[in-house]
Design brief:
This protein has 16 helices and 13 strands. By secondary structure, the chain is an alpha/beta fold. The chain has a domain of 206 residues: 3-Layer(aba) Sandwich (Rossmann fold), CATH 3.40.50. Strands 4-5-13-10-11-12 form a six-stranded mixed sheet, sandwiched between helices. Helix 4 packs parallel to helix 5 and helix 8 packs across helix 10. The chain is globular, with a radius of gyration of 22 Å. The mean pLDDT is 95.
Length: 441
């Protein structure tokens, strides 16, 4: 079986076992990547890989029914099956947004609903890999840590807490106080994590958790850890599989810490290298205007992303001014002939409302991606016949305050042109008929 190991993305010599608590290159302090023995994987023809993956997809044989572990040989082949911590992540539906696409003049608009996962976000895909490796390392390789820890704007903490509880491994999460939705806050509390609400933003939480990891107090679970990307790259693989192994023309993803953008590239690049696909899609990295360091760098023609002070945004999960995975994402953007575009608060909120009116129930981060789609379509960059996939990263059910605020017209800087409020009536038949007539004609 082909093994996986850590290697520096800057090209420093040497590899490191994935069981080691290492997050950056010890030589240059650059980010690490998980690398695979592609020569060994190429010994199996592409057609055979497709058959294997299709036969496992959403079946019940442990652990291969998981959308991640069904592609185990391409993700973390070293990990023994009995060390895997899985909550049947992945396998989320690729929704044909036919009505919204028709409004935009697109014949093929699809939304990959990654929020239809155990904890309600795409974070589960990466967390199953990370927690499984830690579980294996603690059991068989002498890894000793007090807890697995993360800084989070909500979804990462929920996912880590759930997987840690499943494995029986203590979890610590650092959250920016008052900047996480109630639904997101209660998830790690319910799963027994130690939740520390700090009077800072995500970047401040991240600085502290990195120091905790550097001093060996905790094991780091943020997407700086390359293990997370191994699970998240299966989004790309699953999209292609759901299209009967065909590649879309565009993939649009909301991005904060930028790990998801680089994970998508990893997935598409690996499939092309192994002959499963013969071309790559174009990538759109969508950011909130108030937290848009990647967009700023691209507009300025820079090859590196400079940190910024992220301002408060309704898209709280991507309110990140110093994205850790920026070097990875910049490479992904170049390799996938990508575009970086941002959205104002009004644009993201209206994009959600417009999508919801066609039957969806979108979180504010998906609203950022949809707003990017609307802009690119209006500019003619995305063509009528293009097959477009918008990655929805979380469930709208986690963001009730956002939804209520929109329809109550209570969101600052948002016009709420599609607000819809309940009509208060007496229990009178005539008044009910009048209300129906007024709305429906």
């Amino acid at each position: 079986m082909a093994n996986a190991s850590f290697r520096c993305i800057e090209g420093c010599p040497g590899e490191h076992p994935i069981t080691a608590p290492i997050y950056r290159c010890p030589k240059c302090n650059g980010l690490l990547d998980v690398v695979h023995d592609l020569d060994a994987l190429k010994m199996i023809p592409a057609a055979a890989w497709k058959q294997v993956f299709d036969a496992r997809y959403k079946r019940t044989q442990w652990p291969y029914g998981s959308g991640v572990w069904g592609k185990k040989e391409w993700v973390a082949p070293n990990v023994p099956d009995d060390a895997i911590v899985s909550l049947d992540e992945g396998g989320t539906n690729l929704f044909w947004a036919e009505r919204l696409g028709r409004e935009l003049g697109l014949s093929e608009l699809w939304v990959k609903l990654c929020g239809n996962s155990h904890t309600g976000s795409f974070k589960d895909l990466g967390m199953t890999v990370l927690v499984s490796v830690v579980n294996w390392a603690m059991r068989d390789h002498g890894l000793k840590v007090r807890a697995i820890a993360c800084a989070s704007t909500g979804d990462t903490s929920a996912s880590l807490a759930a997987y840690g509880a499943t494995a029986g491994i203590p979890v610590v999460v650092l959250l920016p106080r008052g900047k996480v939705s109630t639904a997101q806050l209660v998830q790690p509390l319910a799963n027994g994590a130690l939740v520390l609400a700090l009077d800072t933003d995500f970047d401040g939480c991240m600085a502290i958790v990195q120091r905790l990891a550097a001093e060996g107090i905790v094991y780091l679970a943020n997407s700086m850890n390359a293990l997370r990307l191994e699970g998240q790259k299966t989004v790309a693989m699953e999209i292609v599989q759901q299209f009967d192994w065909q590649v879309p023309d565009w993939v649009i993803i909301p991005s904060g810490n930028l790990g998801n953008a680089s994970a998508l590239y990893k997935g598409f690049a690996m499939m092309k290298e192994l002959g499963v696909i013969d071309r790559l899609p174009r990538l759109v990295i969508a950011q909130a205007e108030k937290a848009n360091p990647m967009v700023r760098a691209v507009r300025a023609g820079l090859t590196e992303v400079a940190p910024m002070k992220a301002e408060a945004t309704l898209a709280t999960a991507i309110q990140i001014g110093a994205p850790v995975s920026a070097p990875r994402a910049m490479r992904a953007l170049k390799a996938l002939d990508g575009v970086a575009i941002d959205a104002t608060e009004d644009e993201l909120a209206e994009a959600c409302a417009r999508a919801d009116a066609t039957g969806m129930y979108t979180d504010p981060h998906t609203g950022v991606a949809l707003a990017a789609l609307f802009k690119l379509r209006a500019a003619g960059t995305i063509k009528d016949k293009d097959r477009v996939v918008v990655v929805s990263t979380a469930s709208g059910l986690k963001f009730t305050e956002f939804k209520v605020g929109y329809h109550d017209r209570a969101l600052a800087g948002v016009d709420a042109r599609r607000a819809n409020t309940a009509v208060q009536l007496a229990p009178d038949f005539g008044q009910v008929v009048d209300a129906i007539t007024k709305r429906m004609g």
